[in-house]
């Protein structure tokens, strides 16, 4: 019988968090007594559907990342690798790392997750992985509670139907062979700058449907100082 393909979670922490205005990358700042990165790594480490973790980390902070992981007894962390100059570059680094691992083939599941989404739940992770039994690409998402408009300069050009709009979150999950081919194509296209991984599949593999599963408003992305305060309040309340 063929060996079951593993589920690899790639935690993307390649940015420096310039918008936070702090001396350290935002993923190293503390929330409720632990670094943002530790909260995120622990969520994937305790998930029974994740087999191994790779951390894509900004240069100069790899040792700090290993220190955090070891202090928290994160046992599934296999490697800390350098990211790219862009979000897509960091995803591609994770994809290439996964493809190079023994026992990891094109049918393996790869989860790509922003380290700054430190409050991701086990339910969301499990739902994304489970969806990959029936599809090759999936993302967590939440319905938009706001009316979203398309603008042209300082004027509203269009108002899309809110019932059809959702806010994309991470993790986003893929069959490894699919996301590898899509990202290699994106890397060869200087005119395309994706901000998430599903958009790469939609552009270069439009024949592949991208499914959604329910995210959560709690699965916020820590971007600025206010987000740190909100995340801390949510953790304290929990």
How would you summarize this macromolecular structure in one to three sentences?
This protein is an alpha/beta fold and 238 residues long. Helix content is 32%, strand content 24%.
Q: What is the percentage of strand-forming residues?
A: 15-25%
Number of strands: 11
Helix/strand order = EEEHEHEHEHEEEEHHEH
Binned, the helix content reads: 25-40%
> What is the count of helical runs?
7
Average pLDDT taken over every residue:
94
Shape: globular
Instruction: Measure the end-to-end span.
Output: 44 Å
Largest sheet: 7 strands, mixed
Strand arrangement across the biggest beta sheet: 5-4-1-6-10-7-11
**Low-pLDDT residue intervals, each spanning 5 or more residues:** none
Kindly provide the radius of gyration, computed on alpha-carbon positions and rounded to a whole number of angstroms: 18 Å
């Amino acid at each position: 019988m063929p060996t079951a393909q593993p589920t690899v979670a790639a935690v993307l922490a390649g940015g420096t968090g310039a918008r936070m205005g702090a001396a350290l990358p935002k993923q190293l700042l503390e929330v409720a007594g632990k670094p943002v990165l530790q909260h995120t790594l622990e969520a994937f480490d305790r998930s029974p559907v994740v087999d191994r973790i790779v951390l894509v980390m900004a240069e100069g902070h790899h040792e700090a990342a290993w220190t955090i992981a070891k202090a928290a007894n994160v046992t599934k962390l296999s490697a800390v690798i350098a990211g790219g100059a862009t979000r897509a570059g960091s995803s591609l680094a994770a994809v290439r790392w996964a493809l190079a691992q023994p026992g990891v083939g094109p049918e393996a599941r790869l989860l790509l997750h922003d380290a700054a989404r430190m409050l991701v739940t086990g339910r969301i992770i499990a739902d994304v992985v489970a969806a990959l039994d029936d599809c090759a690409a999936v993302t967590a998402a939440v319905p938009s509670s706001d009316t979203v408009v398309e603008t042209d300069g300082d004027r509203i050009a269009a108002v899309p139907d809110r019932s059809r709009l959702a806010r994309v979150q991470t993790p986003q999950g893929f069959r490894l062979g699919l996301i590898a081919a899509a990202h290699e194509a994106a890397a060869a296209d200087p005119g395309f700058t994706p901000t998430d991984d599903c958009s790469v599949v939609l552009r270069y593999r439009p024949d592949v449907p991208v499914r959604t599963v329910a995210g959560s408003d709690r699965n916020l992305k820590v971007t600025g100082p206010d987000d740190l305060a909100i995340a801390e309040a949510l953790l304290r309340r929990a």
